[in-house]
Amino acid sequence: MHRTTLLRQRLLLLFLAGMLFLFSPLVLQFETLGRWLGVPALFVYLFLTWAALIGAAAWIVSRTRD
């Protein structure tokens, strides 16, 4: 049962970090940066953050199955 509690705590922390990175005033800073390789910096930030959250969730879940 201890592993289940630890898994839930890690996933909750990841959820809260995702909320912070995707729905905070931090996102507005990327709105004015312009473009990176022809793509608006806001889109690059959102996509990379989303991909990092999915990767972190997969890593957390796969580590607990061992």
Order of helices and strands: HHEEH
Mean pLDDT: 88
Morphology: elongated
Instruction: Strand order, main sheet: write it out.
Output: 1-2
The proportion of strand residues reads 5-15%
Instruction: Report the count of strand segments.
Output: 2
Individual helix count: 3
Based on secondary structure, the structural category is: mainly alpha
Main sheet record: 2 strands, antiparallel
Low-confidence stretches: none
End-to-end separation in angstroms reads 15 Å
Feature tags:
mainly alpha, 66 residues, 3 helices, two-stranded antiparallel sheet, single chain, elongated
Helices and strands, with pairings:
Layout: H1 2-22, H2 25-29, E1 35-36, E2 39-40, H3 41-64
Helix pairs in contact: 1-3
Describe this structure in words.
- The chain has 66 residues and is mainly α.
- 76% of the residues lie in helices and 6% in strands.
- It has a two-stranded antiparallel sheet.
- A hairpin with a 2-residue loop joins β1 (35-36) and β2 (39-40).
- The model has no long low-confidence stretch (mean pLDDT 88).
A few lines on this structure:
The chain is mainly alpha-helical. Helices cover 76% and strands 6% of the residues.
